[in-house]
Amino acid sequence: MKIILAGEGAIGRRHMAALQRIDDVEVVALVGGIADDTAAFANEFGIERWTLDLAEALALEADAAILATPTQMHAGQAVMTMRAGKHVLVEIPMADNLADSQQLVRTQHETGVTAMVCHTRRFNPSHQWVHDRISRGELTLQHLVVETYFFRRENRNAMGKPRTWTDHLLWHHSCHTVDLFGYQTGEPITAGWAQQGPTHPELGIAMDMTIGMSVPSGALCTLSLSFNNNGPLGTFFRYICDNGTYIARYDDLVDGYDSPIDLSGVAVSNDGIELQDREFVSAISERREPNASVAQALGAMETIDMLEKTLGDR
Prior knowledge:
Elements (H helix, E strand, L loop, with lengths): L1 E5 L3 H10 L6 E6 L3 H11 L3 E3 L2 H5 L5 E4 L6 H10 L3 E4 L7 H14 L3 E3 L7 H11 L5 E9 L19 H17 L5 E6 L11 E7 L5 E7 L7 E8 L2 E6 L2 E4 L16 H15 L7 H16 L5
């Protein structure tokens, strides 16, 4: 399978590393935003072609594209990719507003290609372990408590390099948890609210946010987000269940007393991004809807749109 990778940043590197571990997959072109960084990335990983123009890459003989580009570009690039007849895996969030998200779903229906969103939490072995036990009736989720913390008072990416775009707590970072909460409960999110702290004078975004959500069964989700946290960075998920408490830190899982949970046998890899990319490749090969298709992911975008409307209420 011939794949175009768009994005020469930190997440693009994670996808490239994952794709190298999947049989019968070849990255035939790299699309970037900065020429020197794109050329260096292509040279490092032995990618024969690189360009700064996605349309140029889409004209090549390729089956699919993975879009690890700035958030504000996701929707337009995903629509362009689908209309070029290519399957697409777009990084989370698929858009930074509901209207563009709906357009992606309509375009997938019109073109019939495979279109999937990088809701990696569905694929991390830690979250899969919990999901499998909820599905078997061994656990009932009562409260999902999540901390999403970074230290980003300057506009830099995960590698410390200046960013050409501005990140967002609500439309990007909360999206992981919003989708995961609905996925793990198997229910629509029917109630929620959000409140945010002061806007950064230069970045123009809220640096702190609190979100509360619930589903019809009564399960709750409490989400705290910050770009002001000067300490351990990342997202940590505490599953408070009727039959135990579990804490997921990306691909790792411990119980409420910090004892490790054995995740061997959960999946063919312990890398959530690799498992997500494998699902994309398999869904194309098997001509089926992938887990985390754009249609499945639309509910999270509808919830975020609802949460955004509550920001002025508190």
